[in-house]
Amino acid sequence: MTAVRSALPRRIPYSGIWIDNYSLTAVRGGALLAGGTEWHPDGIGSTSRTAGGAAFWDASTETWHSLSALPSPRHDHAAVTLADGRALLIGGRSHQILEMNSTLLWEPGTQDFREGPPLIEARARPVAVTLPDGSVLVLGSEYDDDLERGTRAELLRPGATAWEPAGQTARIFHTGPVCVSGSQVVIAGGRDNGAGFAIVEGVHYAPPLSQTTELWEHERRLWRTSGPLTESRDDAQGITLSDGRILVVGGWDQGRVLPTSEVWDPATGSWSPAGTLASARSSFALTALPGGRAAVSGGLVEGPFAATAAVEIWEPQQRTWSLGKPLAVPRAGHRLVAVDAETFLVVGNHTPSPDAPPETSWELWRPGT
């Protein structure tokens, strides 16, 4: 393995022009890419279809291996790694099914998928997190026609064959970032209940943004509100840092891209400012680094809203952002998973030339080199 070879963007193994709405999950020995929406040429432009494919990236050889097809193709699903090394795909949708309640288990020994325990609630674009005891908590749904489905959480314990109710959020109907800190699950803002999204005579209407923080207490299966965010944020990114704090970055507020960040301290249960990015951007990836640091990579830069390869690194002591090693190519809407402490697998779309369609490629990014 050489740094030069690893830095080059190369296509992932799939049959379309490009792919989005897939999952990328770190698993033992590499990473698992599953499902998504494939775009295929149709003679005029391109059309999409739900992908039933999956691939395993082998870290030892830096190569992809195509896997058997998913029992049920899906996109806009959640995916987590379980404590026993398996991966779990949760919910999602397909072109025929608006919301799915099915789950899929990936077995690392056979590298095959099988049906897992079905969700209590069907969910498209669910949010799922893994707890310290190995349980999986899921909530949220893009199509919340009963206005409460997304607020009802469910829990899958290690070894369980069925999901169980895990309480209802106090007020957040469209969640902001959902992160785990110790035994607590933290929802950082979102949107309260409202009349939905609409555009009337050029004016955008949406449910009101909320700065409310909600905490889930594992033992009592209860949600409660806590100290608010310092700013209202729509579509922000959030991660748990290696020291247990939670960092939230960016988002939108009334049509403006936010360059600011803030951090939640579990010792105080409160948020405080954490510095400002040099470049306001959306559709970026936020990644936790060793030593309590974090990285914002790629995204659409405010102004031209063109994809960028720029990376900014957050230093926890100074609470400042500074330029880091860039990605090999400009990307937006990409995903990163850790290969080891200093190496990250990057998968996402980039445009090889101004007149070319996007293609999905991969690279290895090392923040310290």
Automatic annotation (TrEMBL):
This is Kelch repeat domain protein. The keyword Transmembrane does not apply. The keyword GTP-binding does not apply. It comes from the Bacteria. Pfam families: Kelch_1. Keywords: Kelch repeat, Repeat. Residues 349-369 are annotated as: Disordered.
